[in-house]
Every structure is written in structure tokens, then in C-alpha cells.
Amino acid sequence: MQDHLSTLVHDASVAWRGLIRKPFYPIATIIMLVLAIGANAAAFGIFYSYDLKPLPYAHPSRLVLVREMIPRSGLNFAMTSPDTYRKLRAALPSIADAGLWTFGGSVAARIDGKPRAVHAVSVTPSFFSTLGVRPALGRLPSLASGHKGGPKQAMISYRFWQSAYSGDAGAIGKRVSFNGAHYRIVGVLPRSFGFMNPTDLWASFVLPRTGEQASNIDDFMPAELAPGVSLGQFNANLHRFLHEEEREATPERAAKMRAERRRLDARPIRQVLLLANSDIGDIPILLQGAALFLLLLAVINAANLALVRHRSRMHELALRRALGGSRLDLLRLFLLEQVPILLAIGIGGSLLGWLVLRTLASYRTVFDAPPFDIATGWPVFGFAWLLALLSSVAIAAVPLWQTSSVRIRAVLGQGSKATLTPATRRIQNALGAVQIALAAALLIGSTMLGLSLYRVLTQKLGFSPDNRIVASVLLPDAQNNAAGLDSTVHAVTEKTFTVSAGGVTFWSFPFTQNHSNTTVSRIAPNAPSHLVVQVPVTPGYFRTLGIHLAQGHRFSPAAEMAKGSHEVIISPGVAKAIFGRKDAVGHMLKIDSSDYRIVGIAAHVQWRPTPLKNDIGVIYMPFATANFHGFPLTGATVIIHYRGSLRSAMRQTKNAIETAIPGAVITWVRPYRRIIFAYSALRAVAAGMVAGFAVLALVLAALGVYAVNAFIARARLPEYGMRAMLGASPQRLLRLALTDAAWPLGFGLAGGAIGGYVLVRAMSPLLFHVGAIAPVVFVASLAVIAAIVLAAAWRPAARAANTPVKILLDAR
Q1: Which residues contact 313 (CB under 8 A, 6 or more apart)?
Q2: pLDDT tens digit sequence for 578-598
Q3: What angle (nearest 5°) sits at the alpha carbon of residue 507, between those of residues 506 and 509?
Q4: Dist. CA 457–CA 680, nearest whole Å
Q5: Which of 67-71, 447-451, 642-646 has the highest average model confidence (pLDDT)?
């Protein structure tokens, strides 16, 4: 046993001394794989968090979200109404438990007598039991809190508990007041819990609702399926329920249901939560796929370097065999050389990935999409070490195979110089072609993604964001709805830095993250409904944003004060979809059961980077005539066109509003350009990461081509000497040497074009209007790859071609 151990130590010493004596191979391999594995670890942290990490709910495989859809009106979101929720719970035994979650928003709450911005939503008490949530502190709300006259109770998030109450257990039992109601905190949710969007407080959702609040399809209904019930069975039950409801309805109601083509179905909860965070979409899969491309390129490059190094050591290995060493001894020696390389790439790659993820996690506003977050723990480290191990095995595979087939006499007879057999040459050319193909595909994909982001940021907006700032204001209870918004706009309009100002609700300005949608139709029997973005505005809105009217005029003073007829201004898309032409001024529209007269057609405004499906455009209406369905407006957004410095305008805006409206909470004041960029921040991060992968791929491809061609040129020196003696010129020898790079370059470019096409097709949901320039991108990317490869091959080829004949012949 001791002899075997001493032999192993001796072999390890010999192997590691060899690496130190000729450090190019280990250093190059470590650098390439640390960068590639670090990139993969970073991408995996995002991919794992969104697509693989278990959700922080009990029985997630049995959790679904019910969708109530009216395709004819464009309502295809994963939401339902309180009335449908109540009926489904009573009618379907296949539902073990269900809850309801409704959109909220930031409110000006009072905590210990002080105003504070709080993001609040409303949920039924059964919402928490459906998801199987156990509080970190306190208890869950009682069932009585979900009924009229019951106690007003609330849960708070772990983050809010830490920030507002410093993690004090005494927070349980304290009251939070907003919207004229006082809620008693009964529990703190776990740190990992989240649903849909970042939330501070979950207040009791009181049922039953009446009127429009009962039938509005704007709530999420998570449901836990009963044991043994599959998703297919549950969807069949929903279909039967809808059929029975239609059969039992009045003839008028049944006819309306058939005209609307109303549907009910359910989808797995993870799928819906990812779709709800539409900014994320397929980005995690894209990043992981691009990172794996880079790793494959690095592994092939390192394997090629290992093959080059191994061929230069064939004489040494054959000599060891001649002196009594067995094949097992050679294999052990070679594997021992990989141990320090494996440790280095495992440690370096995992640490690099962890640092990148920690940096990305600091940009919480970009990746904050509860219940998903960025993983930085053991799954990331484990994945990095797994890739390090697999990469080391793959790199060692070809040299190990060659070592096992060493022919002592043949190798010793060739001397100590580098050798090049036809089989070796074919293997290296094939690996070089794959390298070039992967680098080309990554370059094409990253260029397309970058150009897509550029198009998003430079597209024609239809309004002017320059010299505009946006202030988000939470109003005290005494200053809500129209009065509060008018007071907020008036507070900044009088200031000298203000050119003009307009007020809107939280969701009523272009490139905001949230939007208010409604349905509109012509005033005609059985007229189809269409989904539009609803924008209630104050008089200065159009002037402040620089939105022009293509036809018609702005609202009359009487309409703006809700004293005359209802008026509306529509976008060209609405006019074309509903009336079939752009000239629709003077026609009537039905909006929220009220009739509106079209007085103007606004110029096209880019409301978001890409429009929602079935969303035909925008309607603008005077704020005073907007219907908020009984919900109080607790906040307002003021858009200011300012003169002077940005910093001064932001400071004066804040001071003016706080002075004019005591108790108001200003949550933020931002330049409009920053808001637009924030909408595309996730795309920018993804484009930046993929571009970084592509740059690394180019460097690796150039390094690999250079190393391989240097070895081939050195191995062919005797051949070049003979050709020179027979009259070949240096230019002829240079062309001959460059031919060695031409074959892998040609096959690599062809493979890169195919791979780039496949990658671009996979990225199509993330691309924005780049189809017209795709051929240019492909040609330019392939030209860049070809130039880099030829430049990398030129140096060793030129050196070999211009070597004196005597030295060429002596190389034998």
C-alpha cells in the first residue's frame, strides 16, 4: 500500500513539474474554462431560479391558476372575477382549496402615526392556505376577516417587517391605516414567499362583492387540485361547469355568453407566473443556452490545445513505454496532470459565477419578480463543479485515446520533433471547424439581440421624453380621486421651472410597467368588443408630453369638468380596428356601459416596446369622466416639462408637492428617459451578457486557431523545406500554409450560419423589428469571424513560409 502511495506521489510530482515547466497549456486552459464555467454558473443562477427552483408553496404540482377568458374582447389573461370564484368553489369538488388575489398598488399608509409608501394587495384568507404558507411570525388571517363586518387583518412581508419594524416581534398586533381603513397585523410571511409582484402588505379581501366589482375579470385565482385530480380532468370539469351555467342562464344571458365565446381553463402555477412577468419570458433559457455554447467552444479549444501538447510529447511518452512504463502508468500520469487544472477551474469558475450573480442580485428592480429571485447558493456551486468535471473528462478524452495506442517504434523513429499524422490533422481540423461555427453562431445571436435593444431604445415614440420628469405621489385619505390629482398638478404648474404639467393615474403614461385596460365597442347590436389601454388625463397631458392630434380637437372645457357630454380621443389603431378607417371623428363609442363621442384622433404613441396581443390601441378620456368602479384613487402621477437643470427640477417638484399637500408621500421622481430604459433593463442585461459571451467566443476561437496552426506549421516544416528546394517561393509556401486554415474556416462558417439561424429563431420572442437587417447581420458576423481566423492563422503561416531552407530541412 505504501509503495503504491509513494508511486502516486512521485507521478503527481512529475506531472505537476511538467505543467510548471511548460505553463502555456495549463494557464490557457484554466483561463478559458474559468471564464466559460463562470458564465455558465451565472446563467444557471438565473435559469435555476425561474425554471427549476421549487416554488415556496406546499404541493406546487397540484397548484393551478384559473383563467376566465372572453376571446372576442381580447381578455385572455390568467384572471377571473370574484363572482366566478365564488361559483367555482361551491360547484367543483375537484378544488381542494382556492383563494383570490387582486391587484393593489402603492398607498400612503400611516404606521405609528407617520406616512409611508406601502405596496398593498388584497387577498382572501384562503389564499394563504391554498398555497400552504406558514407564517414566519404570528398567524394567518382568520376566515372571518374575509366576510363583511369581520375584523380587518393583514399579513406583512419579511422585507417590510425588517425595514418598517426593524424585525421587532412587537409588530404583531400593530395597525396600518390606508384608504380610510385600519388593518391589524396578525403575521409575518416567510422570507422566500412572494406572488406576482413585490408586495409589503396583504390585506383582507372581503366577499361577496356586488355590481361591477363582482363581475370584473381582474383577479388571480390560485387553486389546489384535490388529490388524484389531474389538470386535464380539472379543465374538463371547468368546461362542464361553463356549459351548465350557460344552460341554466336566461335566454338573453346565454346568447351573450355564446357571443362572447366565454371560456374557463387552468394552467400550472409556475407557467402562469412566468407569463405574468412578461419581461422575463425566455431570457433565462436564452442565457443558459448561450453560456453552454461558450463552454462547448472553450472545451473544444482546450481539447485542441491538449492534443497539440500531447503530439509534441509523443516521443517522451514512447520513451517511457520503452523503459518499462505500462499504458496504465501513462494514463495515470496524464490524469494526474488534470487534477490541479480541475481544482483551478472548479474554484475559479464557481467564484466568478457567484460574483456575477451577486452583482446582478444588487439590481433588484430588474430581476424582482416574486416568487422568483436569483439563486447564489449551493445549486450554482454544484453546477459549476459538475461542468468542471465534465469539461476535464472531455478535454482528456482524445489525448487519452492516443496515449493508449502509442506505437513505440514508430514514434521513436520520428525523433523528438512534433509529428502530424493524417488522423491527428483531421481531428484538429474538425475541432477547429466546430470552434469557428460556435463562435459565429454566438456572434450572430448577440448582434441580433443588441440591434433589437437598439431598436427598442431608438424607435419613434410619438411623444417627447426629453426635459420631462415624472413624479409618483401617494395622496392622503382626505385628498383622493380628482381633487387630489388637481391639487398635485396645480402645485407644480405655478413654479418657474415648469413649462407645462399634466396629471394621470399610476398606469396612464407610456412605458409605465402597469396599464389599465378596458373594452370598447361601436354602438350597434352585437358589436364586437376590443381590448384597449384606457388613459384618464388632465388638461395639460397632451401638451406636456408633446402628443399631437392628427384629426379633430382636444376635449372641451365642459367635458373636462364632467359637465357636458362624454368625449374621448382615440389612437389610429382603435379607429382602424373598430371603424375600418382612420377618420372616426364624430362617431360614438361604448366604454364601460357609457356612450362617448370621438372628438379627436391622436398621433400614434409607442406605449410599450411590443404591443400586447389583442391590444388594438389607446383611448384618452378626461379624468373627471373616468370610471374607477368604486375604487379610491390613492395616488397620482404628475408629468412635468421643465426648464433648467434636471436636479433642480426634481428637487423643486418634490418640495412643491409636499408643501401644497400635507401628508402626501412622494415615492419617486425620475427622468422620463430613465423610465423608458428601465422598461428594457432586463433586455439590456441579457444583451450585455450574451455580447460578453460572444466576445469571449471570438477570443477563444482566435486563440485556438492560432495554436493549432502554429503546431501544424511546425510539424510541416520539413515538407516546406523540400518544396523550397524544388523551387517553391515563400508566397507559394504561405498560400499552402493558409490552406490548413481554409478548410476548417469554410466548414465553420457554414455551420455558424446554420447555428446562427437556429439561435435567432429561438430568440425571436425577444427580438424587436430586426428581420429587415438579418441578412446584413449574418454577412457582417461571418466576415468578422473569417477576418479573425485568417489573422490568427497568418502569423504562424508567414513565419513558416519565410524560414530559411536550411532551418526547414534541419527540422526533420
Answers
A1: none
A2: 888 767 888 888 887 788 888
A3: 100
A4: 8
A5: 642-646
Grid coordinates of 789: 481566423
For residue 569, what are the β-bridge partners?
600, 620
Mean pLDDT for the stretch of residues 696-705:
75
- Cβ neighbours of residue 219 closer than 8 Å, sequence gap 6 or more: 79, 80, 81, 82, 85, 100, 101, 102, 103
- Per-residue pLDDT of 201-235, as tens digits, reads 999 888 877 766 667 777 888 999 998 889 889 98
CA-nearest of 299, 334, 339 to 313 is 334
Neighbouring C-beta atoms of residue 554, cutoff 10 Å: 20
Q: Which residue has the cell 393593489?
A: 104
Q: What are phi and psi of 792, to 5 degrees?
A: -70, -35
CA distance 189 to 111: 18
Residues 6 or more apart whose CB falls under 8 angstroms from that of 484 comprise 475, 633, 636, 661
Q: Can you tell me the distance from the alpha carbon of 563 to that of 286, in angstroms, rounded to the nearest whole number?
A: 54
Residue 343 phi, psi dihedral angles, 5° rounding: -60, -40
Q: Is the peptide bond before 371 cis (omega within 30 degrees of 0)?
A: yes
Place of cell 400586447: 612
Q: What integer pLDDT is reported at residue 88 of this predicted model?
A: 87
Pick from 300, 92, 55, 317: nearest CA to 190:
55
DSSP 674-731: HHHHHHTHHHHHHHHHHHHHHHHHHHHHHHHHHHHHHHHHHHTHHHHHHHHHTT--HH
Please tell me whether the peptide bond between 208 and the residue prior to it is cis, using omega within 30 degrees of 0: yes
On the question of pLDDT at 809 being above 60, the answer is no
Nearest-CA neighbor of 383 among 695, 49, 685, 25? Answer: 49
Q: What CA–CA distance (Å, rounded) separates 675 from 48?
A: 29
Backbone angles phi, psi at 416, to 5 degrees: -95, 5
Asked if 253 and 83 count as a contact pair (C-beta separation under 8 A), the reply is no
The amino acid sitting at 451 is L
Alpha carbons 268 and 60: distance in angstroms, whole number: 9
pLDDT in tens, 631-686: 556 677 889 999 989 999 999 888 888 888 777 788 888 899 888 877 777 777 77
Q: Which three cell numbers stand for residue 162?
A: 425588517
